[in-house]
Amino acid sequence: MENQYSLLSTKSKSVALLLALATLQSCSTGEKPHEKLNGKWTSDVMTVKIDFDKGTYSGVAMGRRFNDDLKLVEESSEVVVFKADGDKITAQFQPDGGILLTKKAGVSVQMQPAE
């Protein structure tokens, strides 16, 4: 009789663990970091539109229009690295809701979401 209770207890623990893991996974399937970049961003010197769904990085920088192919390289919760027109660009999420875009040459631009 004691073995039946310990077996039931083990099964109950397994079911509880599986439910907890399923709940945790469903909570963590939110928006990915690169998806947060989708949309228009502005600064004093440039405006960009990032669209990972279409694979485009476009806008106007210092009066010059551009429209480049976009490819995700890597991402973490605070940083997204992508390539546009062959250049590696790093986007760092800022506490104020903006981003800091840095090209491979080290030029950084603080940007805010366009309204």
User: What spatial form do the alpha-carbon principal axes imply?
Assistant: globular
Query: How widely separated are the two ends?
Result: 68 Å
Average pLDDT number: 83
Neighbour order of strands in the largest sheet = 1-2-3-4-5-6-7-8
- Biggest β-sheet: count, sense, barrel? 8 strands, antiparallel, barrel
Q: In terms of structural class, how would the helical and strand content be classed?
A: alpha+beta
| Poorly predicted ranges | 15-28
Question: How would you describe this protein?
Answer:
The chain has 115 residues and is of the alpha+beta class. The chain is built from 2 helices and 8 strands; from the N terminus they run H-H-E-E-E-E-E-E-E-E. It has an 8-stranded antiparallel β-barrel with strand order 1-2-3-4-5-6-7-8. The longest helix has 26 residues, at 2-27.
Characteristics of this structure?
alpha+beta; 8-stranded antiparallel beta barrel; 115 residues; single chain
Compose a concise summary of this entry:
The protein has 115 residues and is α+β, with helices and mostly antiparallel strands. 26% of the residues lie in helices and 45% in strands.
Sequence-ordered SSE layout with sheet pairings:
Layout: H1 2-27, H2 33-36, E1 39-42, E2 46-51, E3 56-61, E4 64-75, E5 79-84, E6 87-93, E7 99-103, E8 108-113
Antiparallel strand pairs: 1-2, 1-8, 2-3, 3-4, 4-5, 5-6, 6-7, 7-8
